[in-house]
Q: What sequence folds into this?
């Protein structure tokens, strides 16, 4: 069973699908170990891991290398965030070929104009014309070779300051164009935009959400709205940054590294995560 | 001023040089931000970040890609851990050319046999014959093109269960062969092996240590022994793993991501680390 | 002396600079061996070497990897063709940082809209608005760290079917924005467009040309027009394709590989090109 | 049908399998276009394309990148030359995982000691102890996940100056360890070593040969000996080098690029090879 088939199976199941973001093989292994269903190879985390802004300067090659590495070392499906598709229809078709070859279960492309900026940044968030994005989705669906590969269309309508009617129009057009899942992004402080959207969503295409700013919305609440996939896109890296910063600071100030064992995995735990002693990958 | 020159300057200064390990651009930026002098692009952290064992299966290309990325996004020198040199003299000369081209300030090669296993692992730790390793060091020094590039010879004598006399013989031979720094590795629970070694070390070549198992040894104590470089090689990643595991687990169990803001950097902090709003790199 | 300095030196010399295109380390070495001054890491050859169309689907990472490899194994400067700059000002600044770090002497960006198609292809060749491209050039010049790094602005005015006056307006604006060289591209069957342009060019900024379609124009003729750089961008690969196709076909049809020694370099010649027996790179 | 299945099908067919070496996507496409059955992603050609010696300094990552690219742009199986396996059992298992993931139909590993030198070079050609190489083959076969993936064991017994009895002992042991094909390498000026070997080979495991030095041996002759796979490993690149060198030289000396159309593919032919106008890959 391929990972794309496994993702299809999850989509046709009853449960909400819980996804967490990672930025390298190690964090992907932790996502799997803890019990999430799927790993999100997200643009914010991966660009941040490279130490670069999330503004379309990290290339498809660089994003894909990380997603492929995650797949190599885990046993659950990877969904890869592919920004705006890195260009037009031709670029989108090309990325589908590449990601599918790397055993990625699904890709997500968003309806902003290339080069884009991160959805939580200040600044203009320009939407791509609907017809153009529909054309890109069609290119994506035509390019996949296996039946099971998933294409997720992400609408940034709310991010661009537009209302649920625009989001709905976009989402319906994307579903009609063949998108397997619609990701409705929102940076509201509550789940109200999502709730509004879900109230009007009657297509048989599952909806994904990313509760970063509306973090208090529970899986149960989102499930009750009818959401199928919930993605915790950046909490892992944010926890890692907090912890590393504190650890580095403590060591530098105290002049030694002892007495912090409770804030660190042991070297043996790192070895275990690396798969030492197991049959080779 | 190149970063190799900066590292030379630190070596000729009075202070002990404090180094911390990183495994990608982001963690390297944190090492710099907190105030360490140098970043260690270490084999354990980088192989672990890939999700792979530290057993010579990660290639030079893969290690170098991470070290180069760290250099791209930071302003302090990078020292790259190059395992055993990935082969013989020819491989060592080749790696020096590659790392120097990528603006790495210095490389560290160790006197174990390729393929090696991590120094803290159970299992045989075989030393390369002294003459062979000396020949590899000569190849390294001959291959560098700038005067300032640093070659660090790491002896695993203590790791292999041998005593300070062997370590000393090795270190003297490596210094005589042109090594700019000697790294004396130890996995004792105290700094006693290091203390013993330093007592007998009279060469004008600086000594580096990695206080992972003897974590309670302070910078001051190590400085008093005459150590010049102290490397906290893996605490950053170990803290990150602990934090990510807890965060993922909490989210999955509670069904939401709120109420943990004090355990996470904010999205704005991540943006700041990515260099958003700054002039492009 | 860096390769960028060497390229500056060539630009301030009396001679016309002769450049030939390559697509990997080996062909770059042949360009150097034969006596060209500079190697062109061109978009057509490199995308073709990957087996992919020259339509902005090959990423900056993939193009850069080849240019960097060429630099590693040769002693003459590399000029890298960077298409449209892979996006906007931010992407351009980013690429300059990357290419300069890889010891590339200069980069060339063209005033078409991303994603672009090859200049010799049928189809719409849309020019970027002048002000936008000027802004990208300024971003490029601001991003370079060494004084000597070269930014070449390529105008596709003639390729887009416009006349010499448009080309001139563009070229002057690019020179005023800081471009170190202007590449005037033409797919006319003779050098007449170039001649016309040169007649009106009075800026102290050198002009580069690519005589693919006007192949009968000699270096002397182009020099007489005032051209400073002549780039044979694709003849190497075109010769290689012709030769490989014939060789493969002959072997398959005859059922053996002998009797064609005069159409092949010997294995010993390949070894020599690889640098066998020389001190490591 | 995967490419590994296709290769199995060829192996169980009646015909001799004709294979030609390539070093990038373009040359791989030519191998396919002309009608060969399989593409050889060979160490000599690929290291030479990088401009580097064939002495184990090019990494697995670098070799694999080229083989994967070949697979992306062609429709026939790729067999990848993996030198000595880049280390020991652990490295071999790792490479099988990586190459299989990249859709490579089969890998070939040889019984020399890492780091190795090219088989046609002067210098010591040391064989790995038989038991060690058998252990590496077992590691390879255990690591593959699909039934159809092919592991080719290459014996360098003749290259090391040993006789057919040694070659036979090695080959039998490798076949018993699970190798799917045995490649018997020879640098004799005639096919006599191959003929001798074949006379004594009675295992139901197919034999591959590389008639570089015994180029006059025909496919028919080799088939009559019982050989199943004939690999023209380097003639493509050798023809390309000869042609590029002549083309560059002619252009530089004549000062123009015209009058050589019969020695070059046209730009339109390059476009066609790149897949322009076809549906995206």
A:
């Amino acid at each position: 069973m391929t990972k794309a088939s496994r993702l299809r199976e999850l989509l046709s199941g009853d449960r909400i699908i819980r996804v967490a973001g990672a930025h390298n093989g190690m964090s992907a292994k932790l996502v799997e170990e803890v019990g999430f269903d799927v790993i999100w190879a997200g643009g914010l985390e991966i660009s941040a891991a490279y130490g670069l802004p999330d503004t379309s300067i990290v290339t498809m090659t660089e994003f894909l290398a990380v997603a492929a590495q995650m797949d190599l070392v885990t046993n659950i499906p990877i969904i890869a965030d592919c920004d705006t598709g890195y260009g037009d229809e031709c670029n989108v078709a090309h990325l589908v070929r590449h990601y599918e070859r790397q055993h990625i279960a699904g890709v997500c492309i968003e309806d902003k104009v290339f080069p884009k900026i991160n959805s939580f940044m200040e600044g203009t968030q320009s939407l791509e014309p609907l017809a153009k994005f529909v054309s890109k989705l069609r290119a994506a669906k035509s390019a996949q070779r296996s039946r099971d590969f998933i294409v997720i269309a992400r609408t940034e309508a709310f991010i661009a300051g537009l209302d649920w009617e625009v989001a709905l129009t976009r989402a319906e057009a994307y579903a009609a164009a063949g998108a397997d899942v619609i990701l409705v992004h929102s940076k509201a402080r509550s789940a109200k935009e999502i709730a509004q959207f879900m109230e009007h969503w009657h297509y048989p295409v599952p909806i994904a959400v990313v509760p970063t700013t509306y973090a208090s919305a529970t899986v149960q609440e989102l499930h009750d709205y009818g959401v199928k996939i919930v993605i915790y896109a950046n909490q892992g890296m944010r926890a890692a940054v907090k912890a590393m910063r504190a650890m580095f600071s403590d060591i530098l100030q105290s002049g030694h590294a002892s007495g912090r064992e409770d804030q660190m995995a042991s070297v043996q735990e790192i070895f275990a995560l690396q798969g030492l002693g197991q049959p080779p990958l």
In short: The interface with chain C takes residues 52-53, 55-57, 59-62, 86-88, 90-91, 94, 114-115 of chain A (CB under 8 Å). Chain A has a mean pLDDT of 96. Strands of chain A lie at 17-22, 38-41, 78-81, 106-110, 150-155, 181-184, 207-209, 229-232.
